[in-house]
Write a structure and sequence with these properties.
Length: 211
């Protein structure tokens, strides 16, 4: 009996995951998120219902399939900041780079996808939860970076401000997309507006958590 190489198995798993996600997204856009069932997604992808739930334990994760990267994103940027760089400077630079790439994690998406999210109370609630989780992950990294004690509220307060700036910009990208602006226009507007948002934090956070 031949043994399938680990790399091939992992590749097949990624392909199956992407196939399920693609069919789910198509159905959500066509039918709406709430009316679409896991059984319909499984049938479209030609897999068992259990296969769908094994890859995506929550139905919302089928639509927001970058959720893990989203939650860990700000914390990872701060943890990997360059020597002499503050948390604010690292996050500002990373966000502007994400705008140049039109990164979906920053909020860029085709109009039908953005509308599908905007029309779903469940997905909007899940997005709020993911933003909160992202702030909490960032607060942990900031506490470690600054040596803050467990009772020090400062890292949480800073994470709320930095996360809030990203939340506003994420919502701005969605707003412009829903208004019918194409990705290039959205990127141009946000690239101009984002520095103003981060500038508001400079007076209090420019020297905070410098590596």
């Amino acid at each position: 009996m031949s043994i399938e190489p680990v790399g091939l198995r992992e590749s097949k798993k990624r392909e199956t995951r992407q196939l399920i996600s693609d069919h789910a997204t198509r159905l959500f856009i066509e039918q709406g998120f709430e009316p679409t069932t896991i059984a319909e997604i499984a049938a479209a992808a030609r897999v068992a219902k259990k296969t769908v739930t094994n890859y995506f334990p929550r139905k919302e994760d089928l639509a927001l399939d970058h959720h893990e990267e989203f939650v860990a994103g700000l914390a990872g940027i701060v943890a990997g900041r360059a020597a002499g760089e503050s948390a604010l400077a690292a996050l500002r630079g990373a966000f502007l780079s994400a705008v140049e790439r039109r990164d979906p994690v920053a909020g860029f998406a085709p109009l039908p996808f953005a509308r599908m999210i905007a029309d779903s109370p469940t997905l909007l609630a899940r997005l709020r939860d993911l933003h909160d989780q992202r702030d909490a992950a960032l607060a942990e990294v900031l506490a470690e970076a600054t040596g803050a004690g467990p009772d020090d509220i400062t890292p949480r307060a800073v994470a709320a401000q930095l996360g809030g700036a990203h939340r506003v910009l994420f919502q701005r990208i969605q707003e412009l997309t829903l208004a019918g602006r194409d990705a290039a226009e959205v990127a141009a507007v946000v690239a101009e507006e984002a520095p103003r948002v981060f500038d508001l934090l400079e007076p209090s956070l420019a020297e905070y958590a410098v590596a």
